[in-house]
Amino acid sequence: NDFITEWLPWRAKYLNVILEGEQLAKGGICEQCCQAEGSIRCMSCTHVHAWCGPCTVKVHRNLPFHKVQRWNGTHYQATSLMELGFLWHMGHGGEPCPQSWDDSDPEELGYVTGGGPPNHRSVMYLFWRPYDDLTTRKSSGFQMTIVHTEGIFTHQISGCNCPGSDPIQWHLELLRQRLFPASISKPKTAFTFDVLDHFLIDALECKTSAMSFYQKLKRFTNNAFTERVPDRYRELMRVSRLWRDLKHRKWFGFGHDTEQDPGDGGLALFCPACPQPGLNLPTDWRARYDRDTVMRQYVIDGNFTAQHMKMNKPESDVALSDGKGYMVSEGPYQSHLQQSLDSKERSTCSNHRAINAANINKSNLRSTGIGATACARHGCFVPHSVVDFQKGERYMNTDYSICNALGYCSESITKSLVIYDVGCQWSVNFRTRVKSSPSLFLPPVLEIIPAVGKFHLAAHKLSCFPRYSLNFVKGAGHLDGEILETLWAPFNKISPTARSMTQAHRQEVYDDHMRDSNWKKLVGIVPSLLKKYKMANKCLEEMNQAYEQLTAGLDPDKVAQWELDALRAEADREEALDIYLLKEDKAPSFHEVQLKLTKHPKAPSGNFGSVAWLAEGISIEDSQDQLRSELRQLPSPMSTRQEVKTSEKRQRLSARIEKFHSNGQAFFKSLEIDGTFIPQDDPAFCGKDEEEEDWEFWDDDEREWQASEEDVEELASELMSIWMPSSIGAAKLMELGLHDLLKEERELRIGQANDCLDQLRTDLGNKAMLYRQNFRTANSTREGTRTKKEIQKVVARVNKHVRSYQRARQAILWLDPDVNMAQKYQEIRPEDLAVSKEVTEENRFGQGTSKLAWFWMMDGEQTQLNEESGGLMQECKCILLQYILLKVMLSLPDQLAQSKGKKGQMERRSITGEA
């Protein structure tokens, strides 16, 4: 802004200087011959010049792609060097062919253009001769369209007519002039090497499509009437493929030995830092390094944005580098798919069918996406390991990719880490699938350690955490296993363009972008590793301090035993890793209680279905609370649409309540229930808008408001009474002999209260993290506003859990007035829901007097300190075991290079107790 402010006073002067450049230059006299009219200027040359036609051709004898303009009496308008008589000679170093000269009159050949002074013949100038020695040539030239970085040009071209010159090899003469012909026989279009290089770099850096790039060149040529510019889009698509293939063969050393075939992955770069025997390891590496240090680490992932449409004529497709880059050879891969069976294994973990169902019904697609394997540490794609998906992410696809990656430059390496989103399921029968497939191969001594990336591991079952977490893999270092997710982002920009390409063209484009991605990793590997090495050393020092502090307060005998357990788990893995799983006796949830009561009912044989009836009553109470919450957010008066929606919801809810009460007669033994009460919501947990609207239902003594008989029929469904055993009271139920019904509702209510407290703790933690990570670090008003909205959503969920807990607690106390029950399930106050000051103000004054709310330590201190019950001592054991393993991992020199920025910092803080 300071620079712009400094420039503003000069704006008028700048504009005046630009307009001065539009006037007739040099007084209209040619500065070269000082005789003819200087009506020509060049927009590509430096400085301001004025030339006549022949002198313009002479000056630009080696500058055929400059743009020239002619003065028409009022202004300059575009012309071309060809219109001024420029003739481009091929061969003889730019000189005209000696076999193309005679003594013909230039005017008879049509080269005289006029415009010169008396006795000055403005003839087309052959740019390699001075004007006085002008000699004409035979009219054997032809016009050719040449595409350059500055635009599309048309030139008159003359070839060599010497004896022995082969007209069939005319296209090679164009190539020697750094012009790539668009065809072999009788080429009429050529592309300069510069424009082809520009296109490839534009495609890699800016993700520019061929259409957009050519449209840019057309606008450079004629910005007003682009339809007048020759269309060479299809030629650009074809020639760019050839140019890309030639450049890669030259770069990888296959230009001097044209008989040598690159082989699979021969035109691809790989990671310079990953261990590769024979490339970057010494000859005595087996004796110098242990197997954990040279362990290869891979991550595999799919991208369903990289689709490919079916081709109309696939048989006419021509491949230039099939299998030479990163995508696998098409023939062997299709043969593998035909021989493989689609194994539909039953999942024992979370539901991962969403991945397999992606684009499964897209009949117009040849491929629904791609799957790639990359080195997990540095993010380099593995050559010849990228495959196409046909029906989602099936094992037959990923197995082929992983096997190719495991066999690439890994001779004598006996241990590999494979990170996969569904690694817990994929690894179960992986070796069985390899043995049954003739196209898959694994080294017999190779040990494969499956793992799941840290982001995806959160969606797995809790039992997957110790067995597939990267935290418990020796040699993995500080790795997150999600680096492929970052590599897909640039590919998503080119996927729409590659979607409709031919199979061969699409393969070449993807290979080129993956090669470029690896190239950037290669040139930046040294500063990257140096930065991560320094960070890892700092992390190691912090972990040592935290380990010593934790160990100092624990029993030395237990610490020694835990260290032995850690070493045993590292060696045995599988079930042995379960020692890292925190064992705790979690309070039973609502659904767990419902399942237990359904299987083992407490009611007599004549009252089957009471559990389902009670669960429906609790569900109706939640629906009433949800409807009341929604109504508090609506304006007054409501719009017609809002009234219609509200009426529909009330009718559905009213029907549920009526059916519930009808079914309840079978359990209440025809008990007539008198009186009506209205459900209440504590205004402290309804928000400001809800508090004003609901305040009328609250009295000072907080007793239930009784509706009059004439108002009962007019009550809305969200205010109707839900009669359950707790509405009658324990004394009346015991009197009627409904002991079993009382016990069933009490257990269901306890499960409801446990669920509410568990969800409450989770949302309060989420609220604290939003304050710490987002709100405090917001760099703009917009970011702060968005964070506030997220916090408001969390607060709304917290209030909902509290209201549900209050209903459950009140029912428990009515059913079981025991003092112990009231002490266990205490009242929740608004101040209990405040964000901990330790999160928002770490260094605040008064930390010594701060206390946690009661629901954070429900089970009591003694229970938590008991190791057998899975309390704090068990948690200390798990944390210490993680410290032990972390010390071992960070002590390996090769693993000191991996630390994943903010993610790594978050993981370190989580271990040291900061988060």
Oligomer: single chain
Mean pLDDT: 80
Q: How many strand elements?
A: 15
Question: What is the number of helical segments per DSSP (H or I, 4+ residues)?
Answer: 33
Helix vs. strand class = alpha/beta
Low-confidence stretches: 102-140, 688-713, 842-847, 860-872, 889-915
The shape, in one word, is elongated
Q: What is the beta-strand fraction?
A: 5-15%
Largest sheet properties: 5 strands, mixed
Within the largest sheet, what's the order of strands?
4-6-5-8-7
Helix content: 40-55%
Compute the CA-based radius of gyration: 40 Å
The CA-CA distance between the termini, in Å, is 40 Å
Description of the molecule:
It contains 33 helices and 15 strands. Helix 18 runs antiparallel to helix 32, helix 19 (556-572) crosses helix 32 (872-890) and helix 27 (739-775) runs antiparallel to helix 28 (781-815). Helices cover 44% and strands 8% of the residues. Mean pLDDT is 80; it is low at 102-140, 688-713, 842-847, 860-872 and 889-915. The relative contact order is 0.06. It is elongated, with a radius of gyration of 40 Å. By secondary structure, the protein is an alpha/beta fold. The strands form 4 sheets. It has a 5-stranded mixed β-sheet.
